[in-house]
Amino acid sequence: MSILDDARELAASGPLCDACLGRVFAERSFGLTNAERGRSLRVAAALDADEPFEPVDTADCWVCEGLCDEFDEWAERCAESIEGTEFGTYQVGTRAPPLVEENELLLREGAGLPEDAGELFKSEFNREVGKRVGRLTETEVDFGRPDVQFTLDLEGDTVETRVHSAFVYGRYRKLERDIPQTEWPCRECDGSGYQGKQPCDYCGGSGYLYDESVEQLTAPVVLDVMDGIEALFHGAGREDVDALMLGTGRPFVIEVKEPRRRVVDVEQLEGDINAFAEGKVEVEGLRLATYDMVERVKELDANKTYRAEVEFGDDVTADALKEALAELDGATVEQYTPHRVDHRRASLTRTRDVYDADGELHDARHATVDIHGAGGLYIKELVSGDEGRTNPSLAGILGVDAVVTALDVVAVEGEEEAFEDEEFFKQAE
Ligand SMILES: [Zn+2]
Ligand SMILES: [Zn+2]
């Protein structure tokens, strides 16, 4: 059978619109809509048989029941649903009515064609509405992770519009101690601020153990500028609450859910955050990032450089300190899970490398020690020995007690590659 015979057979099934006819031959030729395919076949079949041309009103189509006339309308509804929200990319999905999908099979079956001939009704709907949405909103389709996802529920007669999160990457420095990275709910009242009907004694009724966090000093500004409904803070690990984060800072991503603005001036945002955080926290290198940056920040293997203020239990000489640090430099350290670490975590012995160890003695009892080590190396225990649970240790080598009185992180860098990979940013630098 020729394509014209097939077309005649299909058209004979009842009133069939151009798009539903053409869709059966969707894989033939390029640059045509299914409606153009259908109309051309109908015209060619009429010419071929020298019969009168009989157009079909789409509203009468027994397969789509007129839906193929509604591309413009659905596209307009999509555009309206997102008015006032900034986006650059979108994707359209269609839930086809089961009846239409059934009719599609019947149509092909009736003409003796394979049931998957051409393309699916919903594929055409996605594409045709999608093209129109792009024109109406001057945005682009993205089949990966678009800014906005429209789902057309044809039977329910609704457009579901989902605005995906926007992401800002950067590095933060924490310049004051006793600030946790993220909000820390009070463990006595589970963050409610109450014990029974009384305000919680432990947290003073705030529900938080600390008044401020890096998250609280940064995320609200991004939330406000992007005009979203919620902001989440994702850090590349975290320093101890009482440790400073200095030097090049720690990578983080702030995620804003359902943003109405997503293309923001990151330099201005940086200034706004730094003004808001009043010198307790500073951010730099802000960039608009992709969804995948969250996982990268959380999962990428990172090494850390620390600066520890150390106090000794007995006098130490500059030479002895120098020799001890030389011994730690390049050492592989065995660490049994420290006492201070979450007791719910399974205890185990793990090994971590010290890449670099350096330091300076201030007086016989005090020194500043710089340690560059693999991610997960416990620095306080590397200094103190943790009662023999960490080996080797500075205290162990020196044969005197040693404790860290202040610990700062000065660098957090990817072990194999930098966090800042262009592939994970929205715009070129
Ligand atoms: Zn139709
Ligand atoms: Zn409390």
Automatic annotation (TrEMBL):
Summarize where substrate binds, as residue positions. Answer: 306, 378
Which enzyme type, at the first EC level? isomerase
Q: Which domain of life is it from?
A: Archaea
- The answer, when asked if Transmembrane is one of the entry's keywords, is no
Pinpoint the THUMP domain residues: 15-165
E.C. code: 5.4.99.25
What's this protein's family per the entry? Belongs to the pseudouridine synthase Pus10 family.
Protein name as catalogued = tRNA pseudouridine synthase Pus10
Source organism per UniProt: Halogranum gelatinilyticum
